[in-house]
Design brief:
Two copies of one chain form a homodimer. Chain A contains eleven helices and 17 strands. The longest helix of chain A has 17 residues. Chain A is globular and about 60 Å long. The N and C termini of chain A lie far apart (about 45 Å). Chain A has about 350 residues and is α/β, with parallel strands linked by helices. In chain A, α3 crosses α6 and α7 runs antiparallel to α8. Chains A and B meet through β15, β16, β17 and α11 of A and β15, β16, β17 and α11 of B. β17 of chain A pairs parallel with β15 of chain B, so a sheet runs across the interface.
């Protein structure tokens, strides 16, 4: 069966402020030393598996030009537009409707656009195993990540028995669970039966549309209308239907309720690059245990993350601090307060200083 | 006797980097909330005592336009130019030669251009007392400052007996001593007989020229040549002679060797604004005990000194830190490391990055 990929690239990623902005969110930034952006990495790592004309990108209308610019090899008709942000269920439903229209049915790999993976070959092998599981029946497959600490910012996948006679490591999913409190997260780790939910899925288009019909029937009707509109090229109607969708995540809307889900514990150096601290995980540190980019002089400064540009940045006697300088905004944040960057964003929103968002 | 003031404004003030630059040093910066620059404050506080046409400014050729711009009320012919920086003795000698040419003799008040004084009236009263002492004989008068802590960055004045039958607080100077080590500075404070040397002097032009003749005879000959050249308006010769001077401080060249020196212990809220820490002494702190200027959002940040401009500066969980943002350079410095800002300057000099100096 034809295999296609759907890259979700509509996120507004506020945790990388001030470099990530509403007009230039994280998936379009280069946070690695190779100069490639997150979405470019996402496409590159599946190129060996999926033909370029079978890679679809779902993004906001306002990011269309960014996608065209950064992914010139992707056919423009594969850039699917969300007129408004409605979370992952409508995004995936829209893509399913498009792919159904083009190929009737296909295996559909759903990928976030702003994660990093170190071992691409192992990742692709994992996807290949997932494709086989999705192909053999109406199974839904999710790629889990072996937790390395009790993260409270991710959902978890409770897995059960191993799937017999199957290539790779494939396990039945007992259930999806929402982001836990710290104590519960610790318990999940101790139990050895929980994986992080990475937001990467593999299933047939027909399978996922069946799930919409069962668990999100109202949205399914809208998707049918979208299919009709696509047949006659009525893009205004596609947009109208999309606008009427409720905002809903695929996890809450379908995965937490569905059956016949399998998970593959991914083991390929995954990083969701969730905030500025990720920079020191995904880049080499220098002799001061710092990651420094730009025109920087550090005096007596260790364990820094400095993301500058042309402007000279001099630090004197500063440790454990994140410095991010952009043309119009500068962030200086203690490494143990990265979660409070959102307070800056809140402040900017309250004061309606949209130019900085 | 005519009283004139000589404001020394040739300094390159590196300790306020990156705001202070070789093309815009500290004396031309506004570091107070009233928007007035240091040199404007210097002129304003003596206006009641000295006519504007009797205020002279000695500065570098490259600062001439800055002086004209910031002190439009000072006659341009009162801006005396040092073709090269030669420390304070040549600077004061040059001014003495000019004033001698204009007035034959006069009381000459020598003032740095980059200090702040809180109680201007008390300061002017002190100068008035000093003028009387300088007028009555060939006395040299220096304004001392009551030390508030064992500073090792200033020279000290060892004072002796009180001068009898004299208005104000006037003491004989036993000797000038150079910048002490910390232990010695502590001893000076304990002894109660030492004042800080503020670099403010009052003397007759004839008196200081006599001192040049005695202690810096080679420089004195040069000053005589300058006088001759001034008479015929040969400014090239003035410049030539100045270039030949040895670099020498007035403290080391004359004050440490001379007799008949008196000091007045100044008590008028003096601050030499020696480094960025001064900003919190001379400005009001906010509810976070911070001094903040510019477009700033602070989250969970206390005891900060932030000197910004239009660019948004957001600090999150940062304390006791100095942040100075300018168009092309940003300094982030721990408050207890302000002395190491000079290491940044050294680094820039070694790498010949003159654009940042």
């Amino acid at each position: 069966m034809k295999v296609v990929a759907v890259i979700m690239a509509g996120g507004r990623g506020e945790r990388f402020w001030p470099k990530s902005r509403s007009n230039m969110p994280k998936q379009f930034l280069s946070l690695t030393s190779d100069g490639k952006t997150m979405i470019q990495h996402t496409v590159n790592r599946i190129k060996s598996l999926i033909a370029l004309e079978d890679i679809f990108v779902v993004t906001a209308v306002s990011y269309r030009e960014l996608v065209k610019e950064q992914l010139p090899e992707i056919p423009v008709e594969n850039i699917l537009l969300e007129p408004v942000a409605k979370n992952t269920a409508p995004c995936i439903g829209l893509a399913a409707a498009y792919i159904k229209e083009k190929y009737e049915d296909a295996i559909m790999i759903v990928l976030p656009s702003d994660h990093l993976i170190k071992y691409n070959e192992l990742f692709v092998d994992t996807l290949k195993d997932a494709i086989k599981v999705a192909e053999e029946a109406n199974n839904m497959v999710t790629i889990g990540i072996m937790p390395s600490y009790p993260e409270t910012g991710y959902g978890y996948i409770h897995f059960g028995s191993r799937k017999e006679n199957t290539q790779g490591n494939v396990y039945e999913v007992v259930n999806f669970v929402e982001k836990p409190q710290l104590e519960l997260a610790k318990e999940y780790l101790a139990l050895g039966k929980y994986l992080w939910n990475s937001g990467m899925f593999v299933w047939k288009v027909s399978t996922i549309l069946n799930q919409f019909e069962e668990f999100l029937p109202k949205m399914f009707i809208g998707l049918q209308e979208i299919s009709k509109a696509l047949k006659i090229g009525d893009m205004d109607e596609v947009e109208n239907q999309f606008r009427m969708f409720d905002a809903e995540s695929i996890d809450y809307g379908i995965m937490e309720k569905a059956k016949d889900i399998y998970t593959l514990p991914g083991n390929f150096g995954w990083d969701d690059v969730g905030n500025w601290l990720a920079i020191e995980r995904i880049n080499k540190t220098n002799e001061d245990n710092s990651v420094v980019k730009g025109n920087v002089i550090t005096i007596d400064s260790k364990d820094m993350i400095i993301e500058g540009g042309e402007k000279l940045i001099a630090t004197v006697g500063i440790n454990n601090t994140i410095v991010v300088d952009t043309g119009d905004a500068l962030l200086i944040c203690s490494k143990d307060k990265t979660q409070d960057v959102k307070k800056v964003i809140e402040n900017l929103k309250i004061c309606n200083r949209r130019e900085y968002l």
